[in-house]
Amino acid sequence: QEIQAKLTAAAHLIDMNDIVREGYPTLREVATEVDFPLSQEDIILGEKMMEFLRNSQDPVMAEKLGLRGGVGLAANQLGLTKRVIAVLVPNDPEVDEEGNEVAPAEAYKMQEIMYNAKVVSHSVQDAALEVGEGCLSVDREIPGFVVRHARVTVEYQDKNGEKKKIRLKGFESMCVQHEIDHTNGVMFYDHINAENPWAIQDGMLVIK
Ligand SMILES: CNC(=O)c1cccc(C)c1Nc1nc(N2CCN(c3ccccc3Cl)CC2)nc(N2CSC[C@H]2C(=O)NC)n1
Ligand code: NI
Asked: Beta partners for 167?
């Protein structure tokens, strides 16, 4: 895998040139599970993906590297059919009594490099982000509710091979489902109602 060799080189910083766009085959392929113990390359790949998300959310680095902001990334988006995703969801800044923004105690609500992630159970109730979804591999706005499970239980392994089981709701639930979709060759707009993109059906939760 010469792609992975390039991405995991010590001096390499993943940027938008490394992110494949709609039409690139790996966005519609089902990725392969990674074996444990992980190779150094697969450990470094996860770390480089997380570093990209941190840079994409940092105004200075995002500007310097020309990055779009993201809270999730899947290896399929780097041209690799491996079940590796990274999720970095920031906490909202707190506001003090004078109304000044104060950095939250914990910078991130979620920070996970997930290997072989899968949804093992989910709520009957659906949910969607009120404002729709974006994707770093999609260079256009596609309006509409991206209908997903409101709450999911996700099993994955961390870089040490530890099996983890987490329950998610809200924005994090939407993000992790979006990234797991990528490892299954599914794009966010596959979940938008073609007839009426803003239809709210069967008790669907709208997430602000
Ligand atoms: C069409 N309207 C819209 O897209 C949309 C429009 C408005 C609001 C939202 C909330 C929308 N939706 C949406 N916004 C995001 N970001 C908001 C900005 N943010 C960010 C940007 C810069 C610095 C730091 C950060 Cl934190 C990065 C994340 N991310 C996702 N998704 C869908 S799930 C995976 C996740 C993803 O990482 N996409 C690249 N959707
Ligand atoms: Ni995406």
From this structure: 153
- Ligand 1 centroid distance, CA of 86 (Å): 15
As a dihedral over the C-alpha atoms of residue 204, residue 208, residue 104, residue 89, rounded to 10 degrees, the angle is 60
Query: DSSP 3-state assignment of 145?
Result: coil
pTM value?
Answer: 0.97
63 is catalytic: no
Give the nearest ligand 1 atom to 72 CA: 37
Tokens of 159: 């870089």
| Spatial CB neighbours of 9, under 8 Å, sequence gap ≥ 6 | none
Q: Is the ipTM of this complex over 0.90?
A: yes
> Do 57 and 90 contact (CB within 8 A), yes or no?
yes
Taking the CA of residue 179 as reference, the ligand 1 atom at the shortest distance is 34
* Ligand positioned closest to the Cα atom of 178: 1
- For residue 166, what are the contacts with CB-CB under 8 A and spacing of at least 6? 153, 154, 156
CA of 186 from ligand 1 middle (Å) equals 18
127 to each of 29, 88, 121, 147, 165, how far by Cα in Å?
Answer: 25, 20, 15, 6, 21
Tokens representing 28?
């519609």
Give CA–CA dist 53/47, Å, rounded.
10
Partners of residue 32 on adjacent β-strands: 82
Mean pLDDT of 93-108: 90
